[in-house]
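Quick start: what a row looks like.
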Amino acid sequence: MRAAVFHREGSPLTIEDRQTPTARPGELVLKVAYCGICGTDLHATEKSAIPLEPGTVLGHEFSGTVAESAAPGWQRGDRIIGLPLFECDDCRPFGGCRDRLGILCGRTRVIGLAAETPGGYAEYLTLPAHNALRVPDSVDLRDAALTEPLSVGAHAVRLAGGLLGARILVIGAGPIGLAVTVFARASGARHLAVSELDPVRRERAVAFGADATIVPGAEQVGAAFARM
């Protein structure tokens, strides 16, 4: 199979031929249909305190179809997305992190952010079947690849509590900020302001439901929000 592989900071990924993965018991091999480019992926290829391992295949916002199943209940051709996690070998028999820490456990490996767990910048990847989620027939796989970043926005809004009638300030209008804007509006927010430096992103924020935008630096964000 072909894969886009990271080798060094600040250098382009290289397209290489790699062995197509096979499924171990309890795993699925996913034929990748779409994979998003996350901001985390971009930052991981830059110089940082936690350098990315050479040989890593990035990509954790993926969708596709089952190419091989070694788990009951899953068949070739099933349309899926998945939580991009591999628990440690000690927790594999439990079907997940035994401490229920998920990505917060230091021994959990993130698909697409470690050389030993290749991600969706390839034609195929492996995924624990218990982390797979079915995609309804009514949802296009291209749209399904957005589930992971959209879920981050939905989680943030849920943590904020009841927003019915609330005045909301969203800091930043990148993909996550836009997701927060959408879900805050759907949750009944009365007034939504978005602070963003980039003019194109400010336009998108309005298209996604913001009532007003703030240019940080042009005025103090808190004062501008209070004035609105």
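That is the whole record. The chain has a mean pLDDT of 94. The chain is about 20% helix and 25% strand.
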